[in-house]
Amino acid sequence: MGADANSQSVFTNPIILSNIFSYLDIHRVQTFRTVSSTWNTIGAAVLGTRKVFSMRRFSRNSATADEIQNVNPALLKRICFQSEFHTEITLFKCVTTNIGRQIKEIHICINSPAWLALIEILSTNGLPNLGKLVLSTYSDLPAPAFGLVALGNLEVLEIRGNNLENANNDLQTMIGSAASLKTLKIHGPFFPDLQNCAKTLKTLEWFALSDEQYSVDNLDQLHPLLTQVSPTLEKLCLGICPVQFNGFSIQQSVTRFPPFPKLKSFKNMASEVLKVGEYLPENFPSLVSLSLDLFDLSREHHSWDVHHDQPVKRRPGNPFPNVTHLTIMRMKVASGLDYCREPNCLPHLFEICATWKLLTHLDVVIGTQALPLSKILKALKSLDTGSGLSEVRIVGVDNKLQKTVFDDLASDVEKLIDFITKCHALKRLTFTGIWWKPETVVRVMEFLAKRGSTLPVVILE
């Protein structure tokens, strides 16, 4: 069949291609990450449809200043600069100087030569609409000091790096210049003074970094930092991020926390150091979303019968009665007993979740290596899906982001189908991080196609 001369192939139609790659970029499909990165570089110049313009690969893509000038300034929103090539610094100055009013987001390393160029532009209010600034470090060399700069519309500031001590003054100046700051994310040893943004800051993410070279210390400085912003904070995420995947070992712990009257979302990614068990529930009266990397069943919810070697009763209620969204990364009970193994914890965990009367969303991360899906389904029988839950998500992933649950159902796929049938009260049921067998997925999809809308949305990943 001959093609119409006026028609375009899907591979040459700019509108179709733009939509496809925008979707891939938004959903961060890992397989297409390289393609998306290239698209971010050429899209704005070639098709005029992309809102992201990467400056990281100018030397590889042979982009010229003339090509940059052809970019539609109305579409250029973000610049990402991490190079040390002086020719590229010229391009950075060219873009930020000529169309600075359109730029809303910049990613830059404060150790790069372009850092001084950025400070110079900010000093003259050359980026009046800059809303997000991401700063990183890769060297322990001190950065040059500077005074207050124009960041009146900056709402999001991210700071990352092991070597933040030598840049403390610069980073503090940035925070002090951002009068409208709403979101602050810090990954590294930095405890800033947040007094200037205490009334505007809504989201705070603070992660210490730990490895053999960079030890985590001075955690006592976390309390005064939180005290400054606790009256207005709505989202808080705390944790310790090991540089390597072998975890971290820290002797120091934090048990003092101020009240957070407006806090709605709290993520604790280092429960053994930042001890959630010591928190007072009355300090979190508005909390509705809670994520814990360690859910302590025995200490928080059970007393233990040492004679019969089993839990005997729950403590009444739960420490956060208003929580509707709960995410659990790991489970912990009395050590040295079979009950503490993760597969055996699951039934008790789901029983306990029934005591959280307002709970609507439950995410459980299974970090155990090679856990059979049949054991998870057996544990899920303890889950009261009619208790008010609307979404349940089972995630099989370890700290290396590897799948941890394998499909062992074989001829017992009906077990999964039976569980789905009993979940008619749910709106969404998700299994992710599972090594699925094709026949299992086919059987489940065929079953769902026949039953229609009477069952929850089921996602198998």
Automatic annotation (TrEMBL):
Gene3D superfamilies found in the cross-reference section: Ribonuclease Inhibitor
Protein name: F-box domain-containing protein
